[in-house]
Amino acid sequence: MTSNNDKRMESLSQMMSEGLAKKVEKALLEVLEMAICQNFKESSKFVRDHLSYVKKL
Fold first, then answer.
1. Can you give the residue range of the structural domain that contains 35?
2. What is d(CA 30, CA 19) in angstroms, rounded to the nearest whole number?
3. Residues 6+ apart with CB under 8 A from 32
4. What is the pLDDT of residue 1?
5. What confidence score (pLDDT) does residue 34 get?
6. Interhelix angle 45-56/18-37, nearest 10 degrees
7. Number of domains in the chain
8. Which residues, other chains included, contact 25 with Cβ-Cβ below 8 Å and sequence gap of 6+?
9. Cα gap 27→10, rounded to integer Å
10. Which superkingdom is the protein from (predicted)?
11. 0.70 exceeded by the pTM?
């Protein structure tokens, strides 16, 4: 069963152009990289949430 957030993310990803989606993905990956460099644990909520955003794109 998908949640409303999943449906919204899917709709947004369909509306985005491929170029914009790639830019957003790159920015999210940079945020994750900086978080790891700042000693955030990979199991932290912040890192897990941002990783899930990348996966949804």
1. 4-56
2. 17
3. 47, 50, 51, 54
4. 47
5. 95
6. 160
7. 1
8. 54, 57
9. 19
10. Eukaryota
11. no
3-state SS string over the chain?
A: CCCHHHHHHHHHHHHCCHHHHHHHHHHHHHHHHHHHHCCCCCCCHHHHHHHHHHHHC
How many angstroms separate the CA atoms of 3 and 17, rounded?
Answer: 24
Q: List pLDDT tens digits, range 21-56.
A: 888 899 999 999 999 999 999 899 999 999 999 998
Q: Looking at the chain, how many residues does it have?
A: 57
pLDDT at 10 (0 to 100): 67
Residue 5 phi/psi, 5-degree rounding, is -60, -40
